[in-house]
Specification:
Helices cover 61% and strands 0% of the residues. It is built from eleven helices and no strands.
Amino acid sequence: MNSRMLEAAGVSPGWLAGAAVGVAVVAYFLGCFNGAVVVSRYILRDDIRDHGSGNAGLTNFYRVFGGPLTAVVILSDVVKAVIAVLFAMFIAGHISPELVILSKYWGGAFCILGHMFPCTFQFRGGKGVLSGGAIAIMIGIDGGGVYQSWWIPLVVWAGFMILAVATRYVSLGSCWAGFSFPIVSGLVYRDPLIILLAVIMGGLLLWKHRGNMVRIVKGTESKFTLHKGSQSKTATGESAPAPEAEAPAGETAPEENKTEKK
């Protein structure tokens, strides 16, 4: 696949491949640090994947546990994405400035893969919305392009916020982010390799939300609501009952959480 950025860099294939593999490995393992799993397993001693939808993501964590630890999950998922992109930029900048923009997508893609399929947690991760949003912002900072690069996070985040607030379906806003990201990336950069990486990232996000999309069409998708306190018996200090049949990973919790006793 021809890429004007690779051609402009003029780097030997062997050296370029070595750097790409190194960035991919570091970015992937950074992505494996899943905030929802780490906080729930090692702080609350109650794995988030055993509750609600079974998804190791921010929305399910907030629905089940709530509380200030949600901020820790947000911070961890954002910081790891930022570090992954910065590391990729650092390596690329020492090879050729022409590779910096491409490196953002490369490092971001592997960070998303690590978040969604962490080898450290049985390949059961989150859906990549928060980390992906942070990566979109990093891509939009001082990236150049045919159009201004800040159009990428603007389109992704504005559409996400409008849809999520208007409908209270976080998953609908997430689907917009996955759908729009490769389109606006292609319009801004018009580089085949960047478009491919953007399609992979956006496609993975949409694939992770396939169950949500089906439920939106059927009208059975749960809407996001603010709540106080924790719905987890372990987090409230009560003994947890025997778990019911676990929902398939990637599905959204029903309106009334099954882990809460009425």
